[in-house]
Amino acid sequence: LLSLSSSSIVQVKGIESIQSNVFTLKDGQKITADTLIYCTGYDFRFPFLHESCKITVDNKFVMPLWKHLINIEHPTMSFIGLPVTVIPFPLFHIQ
């Protein structure tokens, strides 16, 4: 990671295999790289919740929640660990 610039970074998905510095993608494309930065990302989805809970996800925000924690429509329902941009693990512990 001696020289990272936006022009030297290529974001790909679907890595099938890695041999030495050659990455084979699921579509068959082969890419040569010096460094791999593995990022999983995260999408909020709650398919197990009934629509009566009125939880929606918009632009990575779960709504309607008070303080990113308690469902405004159903105050006995809470979501621990959603605000990941604010020192997440100490915050999860406090919640």
TrEMBL record:
The keyword Ribonucleoprotein does not apply. Keywords: FAD, Flavoprotein, Oxidoreductase. GO terms for molecular function: flavin adenine dinucleotide binding; N,N-dimethylaniline monooxygenase activity; NADP binding. The keyword Calcium does not apply. Belongs to the FMO family. This is Flavin-containing monooxygenase.
